[in-house]
Design a protein that fits this description.
mainly alpha
Length: 334
Protein backbone atom coordinates (compact mmCIF):
# COMPACT_ATOMS: atom_id res chain seq x y z
CA UNK A 1 0.00 0.00 0.00
CA UNK A 2 1.51 3.29 -1.15
CA UNK A 3 0.48 6.14 1.13
CA UNK A 4 1.06 9.64 -0.33
CA UNK A 5 2.22 12.44 1.93
CA UNK A 6 -1.03 14.35 1.45
CA UNK A 7 -2.99 11.44 2.91
CA UNK A 8 -0.83 11.46 6.04
CA UNK A 9 -1.33 15.21 6.37
CA UNK A 10 -5.08 14.95 5.76
CA UNK A 11 -5.46 12.14 8.31
CA UNK A 12 -3.53 13.97 11.03
CA UNK A 13 -5.43 17.18 10.27
CA UNK A 14 -8.75 15.33 10.47
CA UNK A 15 -7.81 13.82 13.84
CA UNK A 16 -6.81 17.24 15.16
CA UNK A 17 -10.14 18.69 14.02
CA UNK A 18 -12.02 15.92 15.85
CA UNK A 19 -10.03 16.62 18.99
CA UNK A 20 -10.66 20.36 18.66
CA UNK A 21 -14.41 19.73 18.37
CA UNK A 22 -14.21 17.51 21.46
CA UNK A 23 -12.36 20.22 23.37
CA UNK A 24 -14.79 22.97 22.38
CA UNK A 25 -17.92 20.96 23.18
CA UNK A 26 -16.86 18.96 26.23
CA UNK A 27 -14.20 21.11 27.89
CA UNK A 28 -15.76 24.49 27.15
CA UNK A 29 -17.39 24.23 30.56
CA UNK A 30 -15.74 21.73 32.95
CA UNK A 31 -18.30 19.25 34.23
CA UNK A 32 -18.70 15.67 35.33
CA UNK A 33 -19.25 13.57 32.20
CA UNK A 34 -22.48 11.61 32.40
CA UNK A 35 -22.98 8.05 31.14
CA UNK A 36 -25.36 9.25 28.44
CA UNK A 37 -22.91 11.88 27.19
CA UNK A 38 -20.04 9.39 27.22
CA UNK A 39 -22.15 6.83 25.30
CA UNK A 40 -22.91 9.36 22.56
CA UNK A 41 -19.24 10.25 22.19
CA UNK A 42 -18.20 6.58 22.09
CA UNK A 43 -20.72 5.96 19.30
CA UNK A 44 -19.43 9.06 17.50
CA UNK A 45 -15.77 7.99 17.61
CA UNK A 46 -16.57 4.40 16.65
CA UNK A 47 -18.62 5.74 13.73
CA UNK A 48 -15.65 7.90 12.67
CA UNK A 49 -13.39 4.83 12.69
CA UNK A 50 -15.95 2.85 10.66
CA UNK A 51 -16.25 5.66 8.08
CA UNK A 52 -12.44 5.83 7.85
CA UNK A 53 -12.27 2.06 7.30
CA UNK A 54 -15.01 2.16 4.66
CA UNK A 55 -13.10 4.94 2.93
CA UNK A 56 -10.04 2.70 2.84
CA UNK A 57 -12.19 -0.10 1.43
CA UNK A 58 -13.54 2.15 -1.34
CA UNK A 59 -10.25 3.79 -2.35
CA UNK A 60 -7.61 1.17 -1.49
CA UNK A 61 -9.45 -2.17 -1.44
CA UNK A 62 -10.57 -4.78 1.04
CA UNK A 63 -7.11 -5.86 2.25
CA UNK A 64 -6.03 -2.49 3.77
CA UNK A 65 -9.54 -1.93 5.16
CA UNK A 66 -9.57 -5.38 6.76
CA UNK A 67 -6.13 -4.76 8.28
CA UNK A 68 -7.31 -1.41 9.66
CA UNK A 69 -10.45 -2.87 11.24
CA UNK A 70 -8.51 -5.81 12.73
CA UNK A 71 -5.89 -3.43 14.12
CA UNK A 72 -8.47 -0.96 15.42
CA UNK A 73 -10.54 -3.60 17.20
CA UNK A 74 -7.40 -5.17 18.70
CA UNK A 75 -6.03 -1.82 19.88
CA UNK A 76 -9.38 -0.73 21.28
CA UNK A 77 -9.87 -4.00 23.17
CA UNK A 78 -6.33 -3.90 24.54
CA UNK A 79 -6.84 -0.25 25.51
CA UNK A 80 -9.81 -1.24 27.68
CA UNK A 81 -7.27 -2.90 29.92
CA UNK A 82 -5.62 0.51 30.31
CA UNK A 83 -8.76 1.77 31.99
CA UNK A 84 -8.01 -0.30 35.08
CA UNK A 85 -4.78 1.66 35.50
CA UNK A 86 -6.50 4.97 34.70
CA UNK A 87 -9.00 4.34 37.49
CA UNK A 88 -6.18 3.66 39.94
CA UNK A 89 -4.23 6.77 38.84
CA UNK A 90 -7.28 9.04 39.10
CA UNK A 91 -8.06 7.72 42.57
CA UNK A 92 -4.45 8.04 43.73
CA UNK A 93 -4.21 11.68 42.60
CA UNK A 94 -7.76 12.47 43.79
CA UNK A 95 -8.55 14.20 40.49
CA UNK A 96 -11.85 16.15 40.69
CA UNK A 97 -14.53 14.53 38.52
CA UNK A 98 -15.13 17.73 36.54
CA UNK A 99 -11.50 17.80 35.37
CA UNK A 100 -10.95 14.10 34.62
CA UNK A 101 -11.87 14.47 30.95
CA UNK A 102 -9.15 17.08 30.39
CA UNK A 103 -6.59 14.94 32.21
CA UNK A 104 -7.40 11.97 29.98
CA UNK A 105 -7.36 14.09 26.82
CA UNK A 106 -3.91 15.59 27.40
CA UNK A 107 -2.53 12.34 28.80
CA UNK A 108 -3.70 10.34 25.80
CA UNK A 109 -2.36 12.96 23.37
CA UNK A 110 1.03 12.54 25.03
CA UNK A 111 0.65 8.77 24.72
CA UNK A 112 -0.22 9.02 21.01
CA UNK A 113 2.84 11.18 20.36
CA UNK A 114 5.07 8.68 22.14
CA UNK A 115 3.37 5.72 20.43
CA UNK A 116 4.10 7.36 17.07
CA UNK A 117 7.80 7.09 17.85
CA UNK A 118 7.33 3.39 18.68
CA UNK A 119 5.49 2.87 15.38
CA UNK A 120 8.25 4.53 13.33
CA UNK A 121 10.93 2.49 15.09
CA UNK A 122 8.93 -0.72 14.70
CA UNK A 123 8.38 -0.11 10.98
CA UNK A 124 12.08 0.58 10.45
CA UNK A 125 13.11 -2.59 12.30
CA UNK A 126 10.60 -4.76 10.42
CA UNK A 127 11.69 -3.33 7.05
CA UNK A 128 15.32 -4.24 7.71
CA UNK A 129 15.12 -7.32 9.91
CA UNK A 130 12.34 -9.78 9.06
CA UNK A 131 13.53 -12.13 11.81
CA UNK A 132 12.26 -9.65 14.41
CA UNK A 133 8.85 -11.31 13.97
CA UNK A 134 10.25 -14.27 15.91
CA UNK A 135 10.94 -11.92 18.83
CA UNK A 136 7.60 -10.14 18.52
CA UNK A 137 5.75 -13.45 18.38
CA UNK A 138 7.55 -14.88 21.40
CA UNK A 139 6.99 -11.66 23.35
CA UNK A 140 3.24 -11.65 22.61
CA UNK A 141 2.88 -15.28 23.64
CA UNK A 142 4.69 -14.49 26.90
CA UNK A 143 2.48 -11.41 27.39
CA UNK A 144 -0.59 -13.59 26.88
CA UNK A 145 0.64 -15.85 29.67
CA UNK A 146 1.11 -12.88 32.01
CA UNK A 147 -2.44 -11.72 31.18
CA UNK A 148 -3.78 -15.07 32.29
CA UNK A 149 -1.88 -14.82 35.57
CA UNK A 150 -2.75 -11.19 36.29
CA UNK A 151 -5.64 -10.04 38.48
CA UNK A 152 -7.39 -6.73 37.96
CA UNK A 153 -8.77 -5.64 41.30
CA UNK A 154 -8.73 -1.88 41.55
CA UNK A 155 -9.57 -1.96 45.24
CA UNK A 156 -6.46 -3.97 46.05
CA UNK A 157 -4.15 -2.44 43.49
CA UNK A 158 -1.96 0.34 44.81
CA UNK A 159 -0.61 2.95 42.44
CA UNK A 160 3.13 3.43 42.39
CA UNK A 161 4.51 6.41 40.50
CA UNK A 162 6.72 5.50 37.54
CA UNK A 163 10.14 6.96 36.77
CA UNK A 164 8.80 9.79 34.57
CA UNK A 165 6.40 10.98 37.26
CA UNK A 166 9.07 10.80 39.96
CA UNK A 167 11.49 12.80 37.79
CA UNK A 168 8.83 15.46 37.19
CA UNK A 169 8.24 15.79 40.94
CA UNK A 170 11.97 15.96 41.57
CA UNK A 171 12.82 18.72 39.12
CA UNK A 172 9.57 20.68 38.99
CA UNK A 173 8.09 22.68 41.87
CA UNK A 174 4.62 21.21 42.45
CA UNK A 175 1.80 22.81 44.41
CA UNK A 176 0.11 20.78 47.13
CA UNK A 177 -3.40 21.48 45.88
CA UNK A 178 -5.25 21.65 42.54
CA UNK A 179 -5.92 25.08 41.09
CA UNK A 180 -8.96 24.34 38.99
CA UNK A 181 -8.00 22.90 35.61
CA UNK A 182 -4.71 24.83 35.49
CA UNK A 183 -1.47 22.96 34.92
CA UNK A 184 0.72 25.97 35.76
CA UNK A 185 0.22 28.77 38.28
CA UNK A 186 2.22 31.73 39.54
CA UNK A 187 2.38 32.14 43.32
CA UNK A 188 4.41 34.93 44.95
CA UNK A 189 6.10 35.60 41.63
CA UNK A 190 7.21 31.96 41.27
CA UNK A 191 5.93 29.73 38.47
CA UNK A 192 4.77 26.32 39.72
CA UNK A 193 3.17 23.24 38.23
CA UNK A 194 0.03 21.77 39.75
CA UNK A 195 -0.88 18.13 40.45
CA UNK A 196 -2.97 18.37 37.26
CA UNK A 197 0.24 18.48 35.22
CA UNK A 198 1.76 15.54 37.11
CA UNK A 199 -1.31 13.33 36.67
CA UNK A 200 -1.29 14.04 32.92
CA UNK A 201 2.26 12.73 32.78
CA UNK A 202 1.21 9.72 34.84
CA UNK A 203 -1.68 8.90 32.47
CA UNK A 204 0.41 9.38 29.33
CA UNK A 205 3.35 7.27 30.49
CA UNK A 206 1.07 4.59 31.96
CA UNK A 207 -0.53 4.17 28.55
CA UNK A 208 2.89 4.01 26.94
CA UNK A 209 3.69 0.89 28.95
CA UNK A 210 0.72 -0.83 27.34
CA UNK A 211 2.03 0.14 23.90
CA UNK A 212 4.94 -2.23 24.48
CA UNK A 213 2.63 -5.17 23.76
CA UNK A 214 -0.07 -3.49 21.64
CA UNK A 215 2.33 -2.13 18.99
CA UNK A 216 3.91 -5.56 18.24
CA UNK A 217 0.38 -7.00 18.22
CA UNK A 218 -0.89 -4.65 15.53
CA UNK A 219 2.26 -5.14 13.46
CA UNK A 220 1.23 -8.78 13.47
CA UNK A 221 -1.93 -7.73 11.62
CA UNK A 222 -0.53 -5.11 9.26
CA UNK A 223 2.96 -3.95 8.35
CA UNK A 224 1.76 -0.61 6.98
CA UNK A 225 2.79 2.24 9.38
CA UNK A 226 -0.13 4.40 8.18
CA UNK A 227 -2.67 1.76 9.21
CA UNK A 228 -0.88 1.13 12.50
CA UNK A 229 -0.91 4.84 13.33
CA UNK A 230 -4.53 5.45 12.31
CA UNK A 231 -5.80 2.39 14.21
CA UNK A 232 -3.95 3.55 17.33
CA UNK A 233 -5.21 7.11 16.95
CA UNK A 234 -8.87 6.14 16.61
CA UNK A 235 -8.60 3.65 19.49
CA UNK A 236 -7.03 6.20 21.83
CA UNK A 237 -9.44 8.99 20.87
CA UNK A 238 -12.43 6.89 21.87
CA UNK A 239 -10.75 5.61 24.99
CA UNK A 240 -11.48 8.75 27.06
CA UNK A 241 -15.22 8.47 26.66
CA UNK A 242 -15.10 4.72 27.21
CA UNK A 243 -13.52 5.46 30.60
CA UNK A 244 -16.60 7.40 31.68
CA UNK A 245 -19.02 4.97 30.04
CA UNK A 246 -17.65 1.83 31.65
CA UNK A 247 -16.30 3.27 34.92
CA UNK A 248 -17.21 0.89 37.71
CA UNK A 249 -18.51 -1.68 35.20
CA UNK A 250 -14.93 -2.70 34.41
CA UNK A 251 -14.86 -5.12 37.32
CA UNK A 252 -17.74 -6.98 35.67
CA UNK A 253 -15.59 -7.87 32.66
CA UNK A 254 -14.10 -10.74 34.63
CA UNK A 255 -13.07 -12.75 31.57
CA UNK A 256 -11.57 -9.83 29.63
CA UNK A 257 -7.95 -10.72 30.53
CA UNK A 258 -8.56 -14.24 29.23
CA UNK A 259 -9.97 -12.90 25.98
CA UNK A 260 -7.06 -10.49 25.53
CA UNK A 261 -4.62 -13.31 26.30
CA UNK A 262 -6.17 -15.48 23.59
CA UNK A 263 -5.96 -12.63 21.06
CA UNK A 264 -2.33 -11.87 21.90
CA UNK A 265 -1.41 -15.56 21.78
CA UNK A 266 -3.13 -15.94 18.40
CA UNK A 267 -1.29 -12.92 16.95
CA UNK A 268 1.96 -14.17 18.50
CA UNK A 269 1.59 -17.55 16.79
CA UNK A 270 0.66 -15.77 13.55
CA UNK A 271 3.86 -13.71 13.75
CA UNK A 272 5.98 -16.80 14.29
CA UNK A 273 4.31 -18.49 11.29
CA UNK A 274 4.96 -15.40 9.15
CA UNK A 275 8.58 -15.39 10.29
CA UNK A 276 8.92 -19.05 9.30
CA UNK A 277 7.20 -18.38 5.98
CA UNK A 278 9.81 -15.72 5.11
CA UNK A 279 12.66 -17.21 7.14
CA UNK A 280 16.17 -15.89 6.54
CA UNK A 281 17.92 -17.20 9.66
CA UNK A 282 20.66 -19.64 8.62
CA UNK A 283 20.18 -21.96 11.62
CA UNK A 284 16.50 -22.55 10.76
CA UNK A 285 15.94 -24.77 7.71
CA UNK A 286 19.29 -23.70 6.32
CA UNK A 287 18.09 -20.12 5.90
CA UNK A 288 15.27 -21.11 3.53
CA UNK A 289 11.60 -20.21 4.04
CA UNK A 290 9.28 -22.88 5.42
CA UNK A 291 5.94 -23.41 3.67
CA UNK A 292 3.66 -23.05 6.70
CA UNK A 293 0.06 -21.79 6.55
CA UNK A 294 -0.39 -18.21 7.75
CA UNK A 295 -3.88 -16.95 8.76
CA UNK A 296 -5.06 -14.19 6.43
CA UNK A 297 -6.62 -10.95 7.62
CA UNK A 298 -10.18 -12.30 7.27
CA UNK A 299 -9.38 -15.20 9.61
CA UNK A 300 -7.59 -12.87 12.04
CA UNK A 301 -10.51 -10.45 12.11
CA UNK A 302 -12.96 -13.32 12.68
CA UNK A 303 -10.93 -14.71 15.56
CA UNK A 304 -10.57 -11.31 17.25
CA UNK A 305 -14.29 -10.46 17.02
CA UNK A 306 -15.37 -13.96 18.11
CA UNK A 307 -13.08 -14.02 21.14
CA UNK A 308 -14.18 -10.58 22.30
CA UNK A 309 -17.85 -11.44 21.83
CA UNK A 310 -17.59 -14.72 23.75
CA UNK A 311 -15.59 -13.26 26.65
CA UNK A 312 -17.89 -10.22 26.96
CA UNK A 313 -21.06 -12.31 27.01
CA UNK A 314 -19.51 -14.83 29.41
CA UNK A 315 -18.39 -11.97 31.69
CA UNK A 316 -21.86 -10.44 31.81
CA UNK A 317 -23.45 -13.82 32.56
CA UNK A 318 -20.90 -14.48 35.31
CA UNK A 319 -21.44 -11.04 36.86
CA UNK A 320 -25.22 -11.44 36.74
CA UNK A 321 -25.05 -14.82 38.49
CA UNK A 322 -22.67 -13.45 41.12
CA UNK A 323 -24.98 -10.49 41.80
CA UNK A 324 -27.98 -12.84 42.08
CA UNK A 325 -26.19 -15.02 44.63
CA UNK A 326 -25.23 -11.98 46.71
CA UNK A 327 -28.89 -10.92 46.86
CA UNK A 328 -30.12 -14.32 47.98
CA UNK A 329 -31.41 -14.22 51.58
CA UNK A 330 -29.21 -16.00 54.10
CA UNK A 331 -31.16 -18.80 55.79
CA UNK A 332 -30.23 -20.01 59.23
CA UNK A 333 -31.23 -23.24 60.91
CA UNK A 334 -33.85 -23.15 63.68
Amino acid sequence: MIVPVWLWIATVAGLLILLAIDLVIVDRKPHEVTIGEAARWVVFYVACAVVFGLGLWFFAGGQPAGEFFAGYITEYSLSVDNLFIFLVVMAAFKVPAIHQHKVLLIGILLALAMRSVFILLGAAVIANFSWVFYLFGAFLIYTAWTFLRSKHDEEEEEYKENAATRLARRFLPVTKEYHGAKSFVRINGKRLVTPMFIVMIAIGTADLLFAVDSIPAIFGLTKEPFLVFSANAFALMGLRQLYFLLGGLLNKLVYLPIGLAVILAFIGVKLVLEALHSNELPFINGGDPIAVPVPNIAVSLGVIISVLAVTTVASLIKSKRTAAKEQEPVTTGS
